[in-house]
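HUMAN: I'm a chemist; might I ask for a sequence paired with its structure tokens?

ASSISTANT:
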Amino acid sequence: MTSQDAVTLTAASVGFVAAVFFCVGNFMNNSESIFKQSRPFNDISKPIAHALSAQRAQYVTGGLLLVIAFSLQVWGVLASKENAECLPQWLHSWLYLVLSAVALSAAIGFCTSRLLYASTIKGVSRLYRRQLKEDREKYGC
């Protein structure tokens, strides 16, 4: 397998995982979650906060993976068409290369997404507590 083939297949695999991360939020947004998010609340809507935090994490992760995929595609065009890539022998099969790239980018994407979600929901909770404190001081409750 040439360097160009290896990089191009890796880029396509990472791009595939990026597309999956962009789609996950919409697949998880079923009738029940839409119902919960559309109900009126006097206070913070935890379902909306969690849904939007998860959606943000998925989109940011998908975007980062797309940037990586596009960068790999540029590298693939510039890579040598004659030289064999310095890969382990088992990765010279296109199937193993694609499966490895998908598995690695999915694992990285999942971890990134979970970290972004945790960070976002923590920030939302902090803002909620601050607003609650300000409302108590303002209204004397």
